[in-house]
Specification:
Strand content: 15-25%
Structural class: alpha+beta
Strand order of the largest sheet: 2-5-1-6
Shape: elongated
Number of strands: 6
Order of helices and strands: HHEHHHEEEEEHHH
Helix content: 40-55%
Largest sheet: 4 strands, mixed
Number of helices: 8
Distance between the termini: 49 Å
């Protein structure tokens, strides 16, 4: 112990410790700034859909998917000419009651009487894969659909660009959707969400997840 204390009193050792600490702080700040900026750019490029089932029963989960399919079909129709997320949100907000009516009709047609709550806001999402596109956890603008008591499992997708329409058999997102996303992101940001075989890209993606999942980035700018 005495030898250790004596070592710490050595000016060179003390300088190394101070420089190492400052380097750690600097690296952490840079990593946080990087994660915050990239998370913001990615979240600003997509408008997501979040459907919550009444419960985890098989019947309620099946109903959730039927509601989802009808809402996606409607959204795809009214937003087919959208060029950016802001346009998609504006149209979704204008047709908010239509979304509710479609959900209620779907529920009624399937023999249920659940109410539906529709909201558009900024919500937290976990990391999700959409075919060959992966979006990191974080806060995203979304249309949230709560069926009944909304105590069942969630279902997430992206309404703009339309990543909901993943070819299940091939697991590949339509090229036009990826092109829209690529246009809205920097080259590195698009690589982060579309590449999984580059060790450096994987590491940066983990940085995004770490800061978002641990609450360091808690809301959009």
């Amino acid at each position: 112990m005495k030898n250790l204390l004596k070592l710490f009193k050595n000016p060179k050792v003390k300088m190394v410790i101070i420089l190492s600490f400052l380097l750690f702080i600097y690296t952490t700040i840079c990593a946080f700034s990087y994660a915050e900026n990239v998370s913001y750019d990615i979240s600003e490029s997509v408008f997501r859909l979040h459907v919550i089932a009444n419960s985890d029963s098989k019947e309620d989960q099946d109903l959730k998917y039927k509601v989802r399919d009808n809402l996606i079909s409607y959204m795809n129709n009214i937003c087919k000419n959208c060029n950016n997320k802001e346009e998609a949100i504006k149209i979704a907000t204008k047709h908010k009651e239509d979304f509710k009516e479609i959900a209620l009709k779907t529920i009624k047609d399937n023999g249920y009487s659940y109410d539906v709550n529709i909201s558009i806001g900024n919500f937290q999402f976990p990391t999700k894969d959409y075919g060959d596109i992966s979006l990191p956890s974080g806060y995203y603008d979304a249309l949230r659909v709560e069926i009944g008591e909304a105590k069942g499992q969630n279902w997430w997708c992206v309404m703009f660009p339309p990543l909901c329409f993943v070819d299940i058999t091939s697991g590949v997102v339509p090229e036009e959707s990826k092109e829209q996303l690529e246009d809205d992101l920097s080259e590195e940001e698009f690589a982060l969400v579309s590449e999984d075989d580059n060790p450096q890209i994987k590491f940066k993606f983990k940085i995004l997840e770490f800061f978002n999942e641990n609450g360091f980035i808690t809301a959009k700018k």
